[in-house]
Amino acid sequence: MSDQVASSPPSSIDETIAMLGAHDYLAGTALGTVLFLALRMKRPLFLEGEAGVGKTEIAKVLSKALGRPLIRLQCYEGLDVASAVYEWNYPAQMLEIRLAEASGTTDRSRIESDIFSERYLIRRPVLQALSSVDGRAPVFLIDELDRTDEAFEAFLLEVLSDFQVTIPELGTIKAAEPPIVIITTNRTREVHDALKRRCLYHWVDYPDAAQELEIIRRKVPGCGEALSKQIVAYVQKLRGLDLFKNPGVAETIDWATALTELDRLALDPQTISDTIGTLLKYQDDIARIQTSEGTRVLDEVRHELAQAG
Question: Can you give the pTM of this predicted structure?
Answer without folding.
Answer: 0.87
